[in-house]
Structure formats: C-alpha cells, structure tokens
Design a protein that fits this description.
232 residues; alpha/beta; TIM Barrel; 8-stranded parallel sheet; 8 strands
Length: 232
Amino acid sequence: MSEALRDRLDAVKGRIVAAAMAADRDPASVTLISVSKTHPPDEVDDAVAAGAHDLGENRVQEARAKKPDVRPARWHLIGPLQRNKAKAALEVFDVVHTVDRVEIAERLQYLLTEHWPDRVLDVLIEVNVGGEVQKAGVAVDDARDLLETAESLDRLAVRGLMAIPPYDPVAESSRRYFTALRRLRDRLQDETGHPLPELSMGMSHDFEIAVAEGATMVRVGTAIFGPRKPRS
C-alpha cells in the first residue's frame, strides 16, 4: 500500500475534523467521499484498505470496470446520469447524488421496481446553484417540483441536495453557493415537511468551507489520490 496515499487520506480526515470543530459541529456528521475517477483499481483498493469507506465516481462504466477489483465500500455516483446508463448505475452504485430531472427519477423508479423489487435507493437532488448553462442540475426555482415528484416514488429515498458551484481557484468564492444550497434545503424542508439531512458539497480545494456551511458529505479526489491520471 502507498504510504503517501494513506498519509494524504489521513490529512484530509484531520482537516475535516478541524473544520467541523471550528464550526461547532460533530466531525462524525461529515462523510468523506473519496473520489477515485481516473485512478486504477489497485489504488482505489489501497484507499479502501486505508479507511476510505465511501467512494465517488463520475462515470458509470469506469466504476463498473473497477468495482470487482476493489474490496467492499459504499459507491456514490457523483457525475451526470444518462437515461441509458441508469440500469448499469443501479448495478454499481449505492447512492446517486445527481438526480436532476423527473425523467431520471422515473427511470430509476421503473428499473428498481422491475429488477430490484425489494430495494430502495438513496438519492440526492442535484441543484445548479450557479445557474451555469453548461452544467447539470435542476434550476433552483424548479427544485421543489422535482423534489416532490421524487418523494412520490416509493423506490427512491430522497436524502438531500447536492451541488457543484462554479469553479474559482479562490476557495472562499464557493461559500455563497454552499450557503445558498443550505438555505434552499432548509426552505424545502419547511415547505414540504420532508426531511433532507444530507448536503453533498465541497471538493478538494474548498471542502473546509463547505463543512463550515453545513456539508454532510464532501467529495475529495485530488487531495487524496493526487492529480488525475489521463484517461486511456
């Protein structure tokens, strides 16, 4: 096992603990999702052995190819989900963070009912908090409608909201988007009466600010695995 990888993982965990304590939060309320995209299965397996119990992947096919060679972990889909990849996603992932339209929610419901009749899938609603036309995510103004539709589907357990703010090398620039997602979550809970305990937000360069603003899941790749490998 790479000692450097273990050291990086431990360092990120330590930073999460410090950020949570500084915000007067329980560090155990924050789940670290180690984002392993482009990294080979042996590195991912080493990370799980070192204590990375939650793994994040952006691409369904990449995760599907890796998973058989990685010891048991909880797999999170954090990239956009295409309708034609939904069945494959259900074969791989335990949590889907990127439900961003009714079509995807209903497709997951149909496939679960047909192929996994006893399974309920944890999902998050992805919100385009920055209003970026090139990014996935439901518009802020449409989030309630999507939430209510997803809530009505008995094979989906809507656990919270997810967002990827506009990238800025200055980490502090992300804070207003994290605050906006938290406030949207609070408003949706009040309006619908549906508990939304999870906020998936924050990546390698800004996860400490996300924790300060209420993140319960942070998605960290480069700070754990190092720079991404070129895709083959």
